[in-house]
Fold this protein.
Amino acid sequence: MAGVVIVGAGHGGSQCAASLRDAGFQDAVTLVDVEGVTPYHKPPLSKAYLKDADANPQLLRADTFYTDHDIEVRHNTTVSAIDRDGKSVVFADGTSLPYDYLVLATGATPRMPDLDGINLSGVFALRTLDDAQRLRSASAEAENVVVIGGGFIGMEAACTFAGQEKNVTVVEMAPRILGRAVAPAISEHVHNRCQDMGIRIITSMAPEAIEGDGSVSGVRLANGEVIASDLVVVGIGVVPETALADAAGLACDNGVSVDGRMQTSDPSIFAIGDCCNYHHWQADRNVRLESVQNATDQARHVAKAITGDGGEYREVPWFWSDQGDMKLQMVGLSFEPDRFLVSGNPDENAFAVYHFKDGNLIAIDTINRPADHMLGRKFIEAGFTPSDDDILEGPAKLKQLFRNLRQA
Ligand code: FAD
């Protein structure tokens, strides 16, 4: 048997290889990645790793794990094509490797704005360990940092650099930071707190060009202001890595389209993580999610599907972000919420925002309120909506409700 070939050894791909072995899969498992390093955690790249010049990458699993579990890891190896008829992948050097099942875990690539000066030295995107290493060493000498994009990665980088006493400006095109992902009350709180840390945040404003001669010297905004800068971090989102799937004729629509088993339009090929697009039961629409939880849970699901034990994927999405003294945790999917309820006290930097639609709890955003987050996962999973009074009474009451729910 040819076994399973997994393209991409990030969070999803590595988990899939491990879960296949956990499930007792006996045939070959080959993990292929362009990068030349043992698979590592990405979240610290904009947090602890960026902050500390001596920090090492955090490995997902020890080096020895892969050999101990008979998982072949091919580093520095690009899959350049899928031969669906021959059921093999073709590498950049022209050689090929057959598969019984192929798992695409190719992740995503930072979106870069079409701006004059985008290729100047001192302009960085942040996705890989290599990006983080280069950004960290360039930041050692930098004094003025402009972050283009007030999403999670942009705000995390901004907080990191502000903590190093650099002058930091965030330029966000939308009317509020984190606007795609959290409730307005959370955006406002993070905005104010980051400003208190000394970060200048400019919303509803587009950058027009990056200025400099060889290396960056400033960012020119649409209103003509030029913000002096010796380092620019671009964090305006990512594009799913679908080139292989597209070229192989697999259905793609903002990601590789998969069904509830994470199977693509070819039954021998699965796709997981940032690169895939699937129908979410709770939101009742197609989504493409970018989180460690999404990639790893889908990886576990595919391992079950391949070993004959897979149903529909039904995990509740969750995500976290660390910004200054704020631990943000988000659970659920908030599409068209019609009501929000705030529990806790924003002035104490610890509160939760519950999102409702048609009377149902659909998502919760929390800042420094882990209990609401953990219990919220269970409530959303069970389709249970606590009353406003119970929510406002706080975690002790919610824990009691959860116990009742478990016993029911
Ligand atoms: P990836 O982990 O990106 O892995 C994809 C791999 O595929 C890459 O290694 C790539 O080299 C490889 N590849 C692509 N094409 C090919 C090819 N043709 N041949 C061979 N190899 C290929 N998520 C959270 O939940 N919380 C956080 O706090 C958080 N912080 C983050 C901070 C940063 C700086 C970044 C970049 C991401 C963060 N994320 C966070 C998001 C999270 O890391 C991603 O959602 C997750 O990595 C997705 O896993 P994946 O396996 O789909 O893709």
Remarks:
- The pocket of flavin-adenine dinucleotide is lined by residues 7-13, 32-35, 42-43, 45-46, 78-79, 105-107, 126-127, 153, 241, 244, 273-275, 290-293, 295, 319-321 (CB under 6 Å).
- The mean pLDDT is 96.
- The first strand starts at residue 4 and ends at 7.
- DSSP finds eleven helices and 26 strands in the chain.
